[in-house]
Amino acid sequence: MELEALKYIGVGLSSVAMLGAALGVGNIFGALLNGMARNPEVKSEMMRSALIGAALAEAMGLFAFLIALLLIFAV
Amino acid sequence: MINPLDQFKVTNIVSFDLGIIKFVFTNAAFTLVLSYIAVLLLSNVSTLRLSIIPGKSQVLAESFYNMLADLLCATAGSKAMRFLPLIMTLFIFIAANNVLGVVPFLFSTTSHFSVTFSLSILVFIIVLITGFVRNGWKYLNVLLPSGTPWFFAPLMFIIEFFAYMARPISLAVRLAANMIAGHVVIKVLASFVLLSGFFGFLPFMLLTILSAFEILIAILQAYIFTVLTCTYLSEAYNLH
Among residues B120, B214, B71, which one has the least CA distance to residue A48? Predict the structure, then answer.
């Protein structure tokens, strides 16, 4: 197989990491809705923690995206 | 195919040679100056006529201040309030540059690792100095989670040390990667609009929604940067 083709296969494989990021962010906001339905009074505090958690989870997917971009355009 | 990463190129707007010194004004410098002027105008105009019953612009400035003061007080305690100028500067600088990056034909400075790394290393050094000045050698307790069995302590120490050293890297890469990803997605979708001819209005609608989402992300990332700075400061003040 040519090396060029292997590069694009690697790009496709690295985009699988988006699945993990999506699952993580979905989990966090699902739990946030659950918590808000149970106890609406602590909404603002939970919102802050949820946003931090979502950013941390999303960052992992973005790192993979960055590596995919580097593979396509920089390598 | 036009490379969607071309938008992050630093180009010269004005450059003239003075023999010894070469003066270059790039688009990155232009956006930085523009964000500086915007923040300066906004903060000066909003505090021009102070009154007990605040007007619209004064409410804007006060709500920014209240939000960040509450955030810092809730995460790091009231003793850390002396770092409020740092927190406000970080938030306003990052938010202004992120939002200006969404404006067409302007350069997004926070998508460059040189900008975000200088911010995150500044935060890292400030937190390190604060921690050691306030706690002395006890600050190394941060590297040992409470309740670790003694036979795990050396291993945990090494692991936590590397996690601690990775903080400025993850802080910088998160901000820059978010900005790069958002801008690249917008440009790729814009190329769909051009390629699909008559049916171009379909991706155009998506593009509009995505641009609004991009503004939300711009504010959110600035907020997350400041929240993480606050939690690091809280560790320096309260040790866990």
Answer: B71
**Token duo for residue B62:** 């006060």
DSSP at B150: G
Which residues of A fall within a CB distance of 8 Å from B170? 59
Touching check for A70 and chain B: CB below 8 Å?
no
Please give the C-alpha separations between residue A1 and each of A6, A73, B38, B68, in angstroms, as whole numbers.
7, 20, 54, 55
Helix (H, G, I), strand (E, B) or coil at B54: coil
The pTM of this model reads 0.86
Query: In which residue are the tokens 């404006």 written?
Result: B103
| Contact residues on chain B for A63, CB-CB shorter than 8 A | 173, 177
B66 has a chain A CB within 8 A of its CB: no
What's the complex ipTM?
Answer: 0.74
- Nearest-neighbour CA in chain A from B3: distance (Å): 8
What are B22-39's pLDDT values in tens digits?
888 888 889 999 999 999
Full residue range of the structural domain in which residue A49 is found = 3-74
Say whether residue A66 is in contact with chain B using an 8 A CB cutoff: yes
Summarize pLDDT for A24-58 with one digit per residue, the tens: 999 999 999 999 999 988 888 888 788 888 877 88
Please state the domain extents for chain B.
63-238
Q: Structurally, how many domains does chain A consist of?
A: 1
Q: Is B234 on the interface with A (CB under 8 A)?
A: no
